[in-house]
# Entry
Amino acid sequence: MSRVIPPWASGKMDVNKRPLFVCWEMTKACNLSCRHCRARAIKRPLPGELSLEEGKKLIDQIRDFGEPYPAMLFTGGDPLMRPDLMELIEYARDLGIYTAVAASVTDLLTREKMEQMRDLEVGVMSISIDGSDPDTHDNLRGVPGTWERSMEVLQEANEVGLRIQINSTVMNSNLNQLADLFYLALKHKVAAWEVFFLVRTGRGAALENPTPDEVEDVMKFLVFAAGYGITVRTSEGPQYRRVLRESVNGPLTGGPLYNKLVQRLKELAGNPVREAPRHINSTGDGKGVMFVSYNGEINPSGFLQTNLGKYPEESIVDVYTKNQTFLDLRNPLSLKGKCGRCEYRGFCGGSRSRAQVETGDILESDPLCIYEPGISAIH
# Structure
């Protein structure tokens, strides 16, 4: 486990002053061809990638936010396509910055690389697994054998002592596999399962979202799954926090998909061992998260591609704390439509990326949310 303390452990993170994570898309290059890739990753790097020195200066600017320093997430494409990845991780570590790596499962992700990450105190490495069987997963990844290698990576990461997280994107093709996917995470004792809700951007623009009712059932299933002792988080699914809050009032009831997934997980793993945790960080696009693209464009997140500045010409601190769009994204009073009226808007707020993609307005309601605002006081 990393000796560098993650920023959220301090309990002092004010997302109006600093993000929890600065995500750096180190490269567009990746040897996979995933059908839902946000980055539209390609085999070779594009011109204009930030250099090693620019990368180090970007890490220096993370310190300019002040303590507790935001974490640095090295992502891509595949960050392992950059030969200077380990040098940059070491540079961040030496400055006291918590690091995470979103790795692609390719021939580049070797046991030796995982041992290097462990030795460099990487806090967590994430890999994406989107199917509970080889056919589903490899069809999405575009490279046969990726599922089998992913299983080996999970085993090797445990053996070398590198904390690992599984990321899974919810799509029509894997809806009925979510209980099996979670059980896979449970068996391999991963640190967390992060569930991404499809935003139709990049190559994912050609895919279809589940229906809003199905998404609500998945959210309720995630609350149930969180009772098995693994941290469950969502990306572009902030409604999960609303459903968690609703679960305080009693057992959740759901539709056919929820019942099917719950029953399947009970068959695989028995009954939950605890109640789902009630506290979860209220982060979102531009709210605790910022994203720097391969060529320095500054965005609120990887899914919200609205260029709000350019590093190194501009400071990431200035853009995050002063840019009006970033300020609006952190202000629940800026939200429109149903999200703007919702009593949960302060800690949910809907997916701003999905609102932008589906409605053309970054502050409009999230079209995947079925919740109708109630009459209780706005939090």
User: Anything to note?
Assistant: The mean pLDDT is 91.
